[in-house]
Amino acid sequence: MFPPVNEQMDEIRRGAEEIIPEEDLAKKIEKSIKDNKPLNIKLGCDPSRPDLHLGHSVVLRKLRQFQDLGHKAILIIGDFTGMIGDPSGRSKTRPTLTIEKTREYGESYYEQATRILSTENIRMVYNSEWLNEMTFADVIKLAGKYTVARMLERDDFLKRYKEGAAIGIHEFLYPLAQAMDSVAIESDVELGGTDQKFNLLVGRDIQREFDMEPQVILTVPLLTGTDGVEKMSKSLNNYIGITETPKEIYGKTLSIPDKLIYTYFLLTTDVSLERLDEIKSILEDGTTNPRDVKRELARTLVRMYHDEDAARQAEAEFDRVFIKKDIPDDIPEMTLEMRNGGLGIVDLMIQTSLVSSKNEARRLIQQGGVKVDNEKVGDINDRINKDKAFILQVGKRKFLKIVPK
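Predicted structure:
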């Protein structure tokens, strides 16, 4: 049922940042093979972000690797802890959610996550099932198992404390509540991003307090976004969504800096370890244009979240639009009233929702990223005055046919 220990460890190490402690994981795997019993692999899911992107896929792919090795994935939807708000990486107290909203987001999370995870050896639970049952006396007893000094070892808490920023007592309870999740499901291994390391370690400590064998923790890197600078995030618009169209996934992938190609292959795809070594060599020897390797990455990602035909079509469409400089066939159309004298280009971009702000519109125009009928708009004060349909292009991938009325 299970591959040998060394094979499992080789696959698990792929793309992992830290395994704490690695020797304990090998022992747990060895015991699971001997007893023919899968390990419980825990992933706590933040219900405040139901729209998943490649950044989220890194830890989900790691969980899928454990599933493929025969172990059981346990998704814990933090409907109860969502009402506290995870303070990880926060410079101020995080807004909380209602339990109804966390349940709604949880369903959406599961729906999207199972594009990556197998639905066969998986269990999804809400942590309100056990945390709601705790009395105030239980909470006091749990809080007594950890000290304020240890909480302040956490970088974000310490930084806020030194700056005199508010830290709610309820925020100290978050890692303790997450640790109780590990107790409740008898977690053998817990996965998380590097920003979750403190919370995961607390889980080990609290399991010991309940006379349990502590879980092994495995952290994965935080994926850099398409801008090549910041962590992938929808709010920074540097993301590639796993539910996006093939065209969007392909085009956005080709926009990443060359320095991220290998990292994306390693963390976001299922290419073999042998192919990973080949890709690394190709990128290092400088004899192959990185663009060609990036195109392979884009095809791979589209194939993973759609299919092979979609990957081929997305590449052909990209080549037609951006290499041959054609206009896509399926661009949306909008009828718009053009006032006497036309519309200012900035107002036009706002009214068509091709940008979210006037500042963004001005920046794109100044960077030469806005075209009308394939002619660059050179001035933020230009006015568009046309009585026939025209094509407005914003950036590389946004096209809109505007029909004046």
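Summary: The chain is about 45% helix and 15% strand.
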